[in-house]
Structures are given as C-alpha cells and as structure tokens.
C-alpha cells in the first residue's frame, strides 16, 4: 500500500507546460461525431466535440495523453507525442458477435462458432475473493458445477456436464497459455485475461486424450501494443465468517436424550460429569458444563490478496510484468491452518521483423499450506457437551485437555487433541513457462507457430505428530515426509491458413504436438523421535531423528509417459451464413496397452438472420448450431499385464501330479475411455443486441470405461475397458443489458442447466458396488453413478397396531423385536420380509438442476451487482449421524435431539432415543440420505470509482473502492454446515465461510 501511494505522489509532481490541441473526430463512414468526451488522462481537464466533430483543448504538456469516449464506439487512448493537431476515427464498439474467442490452437469470432463455449474476462473473475479462479465460475456458466471448499488454499471441485468415468474423476483439462494442468491453484485471478470453458466435443476434441471432461482454456495478461505504460494495484482485505453453524444438543438436550435411551452406563457417565465438574445452578439434574464444541474450535479468519502489475507496449513490443501475494487463514483455532502464496510472472511479445514475432511468459508460484486436521470437525460433532475443554485434575500433558474417558466414555472425544498435537504442511513450488515464435509466410493468410511449454512442480509434504499424554495413553511422536516432482513438457508446431475468396471464408490448421510427463516421489516415515518434536524445535523435524530400532519405511517411485499427437482443423463459411467445422487428432502414447487413438469432430451452423427472406422485427441475430465429436480420458490408472502360469498340484488315481494352470487375472486396459457427444444449440440476440440467448442440448456417451469386474471361474477381480456412462441435459443462458444514458446502465440475466446421469453398461454385471458395506453406494445399469442404495423409510411405528398392520410376517416381527418408535421400512416386493431385495436407489449426489442469476447497474461512478446460484435434485449422505453404528455414546445434533419420537404422533421422521441405538434402525436407509438442494446469494458487490479527483493539490489516479460479500446467505434444509459436499458424503467436511472484503484498485 505504501508503494501505491508513493507512486501516486510522484505522479502528481511533474512540471506543467500548457499546450493547445485541436482536431476533428469522425466515424468509420467519415461523418463527424458530436458530443465525444475528451479527457486529458490523469487530470479533470476535458471537453466535448461540437456539432461538426471539432474540439479544442489546452493540455498541461505536449506529451499528454488524451482519452476519447462515446456511447457505441470503442474508447481510444492516444499520446500526443508533441502533436498539436490530432484527428481520429472512432471505431464502432464490437458486439459480442464480433469479439474474438480463444479456442484450441487458434481463435474464432462468436459469429463463426459452432461450438458451446463460454468466456469470462478478468472483471468477472476478480469479483470472488478466493485462492482459485475457478471459484469465480460458480453460478455464472450453465452446465458447469463448482463445489466450494472451505479449507485454506483448497481448490473447488469442477465438473463440466457431469461425471463420465468410474476412476478417472470428473475434472476438466486446464490449458494455460498452451500448457496442460490438472488445476490452476498457482494462478492469481488478476493475471488471467480470458477464461473460456469448452463444454462440448466440437470445441474440446482438438485436445484429444485429455479432453473428455471438458477443457478450461486460459490466456494470461500480455499487455497491448501501442499502449502507454501502466501501473495497476489491485487488492483486498477481508474476513471469513463461519455461517450456518450446525447446532448440537446442549447439556439439557443431551441429558434428556440419555435418559430416554434407558442406558444405565450412559446415565452413569452423566452422573460422573456432575461429580467431577459440578451441577447446573439452573437445573441441578444436569451437569454445570455446557460446551459448544463448534464454537470452541473455530472463529472468523482473515483473507487478503495484493497484486501489482506493470504493462504497456510500443509498436513492436508489448509486455506485462507483475507479482501478487495471497494469504488465507483457516477457521480452526489453536492450530496452524493457513495458506500463503507468492506469484511472480512476466509476459512479453516482440515483433522482431514484419514476418516474425517471438515471445514468452514465465510464472513462478511458491505456496505454503498448513492443513488443519479434519478429525477436529469429526470430533466436535460427537463430543458430549458435558465435557469441558480443560481438566486440570486428570493429568493430560503438556496441555491439560479434558478426556471423556474420565467420565467412562470409550473415546476421549475432545477435538483439541488433533489440533494441538498434529502439524501438517505442504510446500509447493511451481515454475511454468512458454517460449514461442510466430512466422508470417503470407501476410494475413499463412502463419506458422512453434511453442515450447514447460512446468516444474515440486511438492514437499510433511506431517508431524507430537508426543503427549491424554491422561490414559502416551501416544508417541512421529513424522512422515514426501517429496514429489512433476516435470512436463509440450512442444507444439502448427500452420494456420486463413483466406477469403468471394463469398467463401476458410481457416485451416495443421499441427503436431509432443508431450512428456515425468513424475518422481520419495517418501518415508518414522516414529518416536528424539528429541520429541515441539513447535520450539522445528529445525529437528526430520526422519533422521527417529529411533534407530524403528522400522524406516521408505517408498521410491515414479513414472514417465510420452505422447506424440497430430491434429488438424478446418473452418469454412459461406457468406457468413452457412458454417462448417471439423477437427481431427491422433494421440500416440505409452500409457496403456493400446498405443494410439483417433478423435474426430464435425460441426455445422446456420445464421438464419443472414438469409434474405428473414426479416423478423426484434431479432438481430439467430444462429442454429449442431456438432458431433469424440473425446478421450487418459486420467485413469495405467495397467500392464499378461496371463501368467501358476504352479498347481492335482490328484490322479491317488497320485499327486504337479502342473501349471493359466491365471488370467490381470488388468487389461485395451481402449482409452472415449466420449461421443452430440450437441444442438442456438445463439440469438434481440432488440438491438440488448437481449442475448445461448441454449444447448447435449447427449454425451462415454464408453470403454475402466471397470473392476469379477473373473468367471477364477478368484479375484480385474480391470477391463467395458463400462459406459451417459450424461445428457439442457443448458440455457439469457441476459439483458441496456445503456439507458451516459450515466446509467443496467443488466439482468440468468442461466440453468439440467443433468441426467445414467450408467448404461458394466460389461455384463448389473451393478458395481462402492462405498462402505454399512453405507452402500451402487452404480446400477439404468441408474446414476454411485447412487446411494438402501431401504426406504415409510414412517415410524406409532403403536402396536401399526406394527401388526405393517405387512411384515409374524415370524419376522418376532425375530426383530420391533416396538413403537422404530422405523417402518417399505417392503418393496411385499414378501413380508425386509432384506436385500427391498433395497432401492435413495438418491444421487449429482444435481438434476443447477442455476444462477445476476443483476446490477451502473450510475455515474457507482457500480452494484448481485449474483445468485443454487442447485437441486441431489442428495447428501449424513455420514456423521451414521457413526452411531460404530459407537453410540456420543452427542447428537440439536434437530435430532429435539424431534426424536417420544410417543404416538410426536414424530414420523426420527426414531426414539432407544431406537437410535438399535441395529434395525441403523440399517442404511433414507433416514441418513437428505435433500441437498440450496439457494444462495453468491456475491454482492458495490464499487465506487474516483475519477479525476483532486486531493491536496494532486490529481488522484483512476481509483476504485469495492465492498464485496461472498456467500452472505445460503438457504437449505440439510442438517449440516453447508450443502456443498463434492462426493455427497458428509463425515468431516470443512465448513464454507461467508467472506466480506474491502478492496482497492488504483491505476496509474
């Protein structure tokens, strides 16, 4: 901040020298433009053109810079460079149809595109205070699901049009300036110029074997040619505030619950608490202690980001250089739980000759992440409220934490043990760069581009457990360390030919790409360090300090994979009315038992508004699109293997005969996972381009999925390329923008996307199990991927008559000792029994519907915007409640404690307190599976611009002050902190906070 204001002060100390400038401003047709606003940059000095487009302005220096702006035209900033006469031609402002959109290995205008692509710019990304730019997409891009994470530095889960792999995940491919990445946690949002989501196969297929889950294509800032040198500071400071904190049973509710269970041991534990810690003055029947564990372990935490950028350009060279600092503390108390990142980047391009441009970019990112123990969230949910944080008499050391075992409980429960006695840290250094050259063989027609892209990622992970005494046990110290190194290289070479002849336009690309990926990891762990680690001797936290007689477990591994690819693209249009698009890519690699794969795509478009017969008032542009294409997914585990012969013995006529038998239990991945996608879309603009529409319907079939199957006749399971998943849905985006006057404009828009995810085949079996046996997930042919699978609760038995009329057989009722307050599971097949045949699909964690909306306005120097988003049709497994299967002497959440069945008519949703501990009610059912739908006010942002203001005699630079509220309100019914759980299983999920920031942007 000091640097920012020092630059400002120096910028206002220049010596003035008055100069008169005159000129005429015309439009592209040569007509004068009256009312054009002309401003001397960095001052409040300005004027407007008269009816003939003429102007006269006295400026402070012959080298002053003038800014020209008028509604409907592109603003221009021009340096006088000693001139006293400056005539300019304003260019009409580009509509969205004329804007250039970056695609794989090239660019197209929106009007030419036949694919489903959504592009966001810097101003869309920086609105969200987050360590990862992908968080900014939440609610903004139809068909893209962003699942937030609350832990410092954690990247969100990103899914483009669902999940299409059993083991390869659903993350898209990130392409940053030509380099491939699994995530973009190293990028600062301010460093991104454009971020394009390539959603359909037509857009993504040119990337081949990595593009099955969509592609996120990113251009970083590069400066502009003929741009005056510019310095920009952008930063914010804010606070993360826990929201929707789950209410747990307090001491009064907990004691009531314990009494209702009828458990004598649990009642004794409560009595012990009163004996050790005293009785409540308000109610002597309950202990005096009433601990809110969530309140104890977390509190608001700061977040901040600061970016300084230097950019500009001459006629020959453009550059952008900058650095940033990001810091985020976690919500957890009394532990290191934070993320800190420093970025340095440089981007430069130079037109060395008229026929060659060379350039490069470089990004260095160093980050340190301390990972708070997730066990704290788990323990805080189960810790009984009648236990204090500290217990000076029990003897725990070095910190006198309490231990629930003193009261008689089986576990110590206190969540501060994992917080105080564990330290987990990742150091991540990433170096990414690109060197490129572009040769022009035929001006504006034929170019050749060669690029070398590289990335070096080094991850140093360390986890330390401290020695301590919990009053019962003396856990030893321990340390584990690992060093991971990734070094990837990509060399791209491609020709691009672009030409127009008569009514025909053609763009052709032909290229070759080589990719090398190297991975190495070295890890080890030891226990019982000497001296024992403490926060005061961190310099001794190394494996060498483990005991000599300890087993030193070391792991050393790695891999190296090569790809050689060839690709081509052809885009053709006739009168910008009929559009054709095709791509081809061949990937050759050494990762699987198949060594090459081919990927094709075809696209077509018809611009109806270009037809002579089309004359519909209010429709400015109407284009119909259709495409088909193939994509690959190489994100699955490789496998190499072959049948083997195993020795065996058989008996013939009571004589042992040794021999061999064929063992075919080996993995065979003989096909890459391949997606075939068909997309139908429409792009339209209405009412003088104020209203825009994008709509797409897609069907995405992914085949040859790697699936684990059982071998017939032989024991064991193997992986085969036999699975198939289908995703299909409708995506619609509708936006209205209107410039009412020079001072006032507004916008309003929305989007939604549907998703139907279905398992289409498993190579023979009807289902594939996943998850734990107690909380079964099952991928069933005809059902969603990894759906929750269990019993359907029809209600709670209210009386003996309900039990008698349940339809269960008398023998079954007798064997299961059912009583009022127990669940009544639906007998799906009506056989009078509840068994495996009665289990059904209970829900999927993939939402059927995602949506977003935005509105805002600009009035003079004030900008205001609101973003909403939400999703529905998905389920969450409340795994925390399910823990009672394994241990029942714990706390329960307040909703459950309040609404337990306590007699006829009291509840038809929850069982009785005694029933909670009964095996019958602990069967996996939709009691544990809850609706995850939510509505959220995602972002509220207000910006005030200080332009041409004078402070203490100095003209202020262009300054913007911003207030932002991220996730200030979330509405949902799920019994948890938040309804965003990436895999649908909520066991110890880090809460997602609301974030409130104050930001400053200064441009010199």
TrEMBL record:
Annotated signal sequence range: 1-16
Q: Where in the cell is it found?
A: Cell outer membrane
Membrane topology classification: Multi-pass membrane protein
Keywords noted in UniProt: Cell outer membrane, Membrane, Signal, Transmembrane, Transmembrane beta strand, Transport
UniProt xrefs under InterPro entries: CarboxyPept-like_regulatory (IPR008969), Plug_dom (IPR012910), Plug_dom_sf (IPR037066), TonB-dep_OMP_SusC/RagA (IPR023996), TonB-dep_OMP_SusC/RagA_CS (IPR023997), TonB-dep_rcpt-like (IPR039426)
Q: Where is the TonB-dependent receptor plug domain?
A: 111-215
Q: Which family does it belong to?
A: Belongs to the TonB-dependent receptor family.
Record NCBIfam families: OMP_RagA_SusC, SusC_RagA_signa
- What's the protein name? SusC/RagA family TonB-linked outer membrane protein
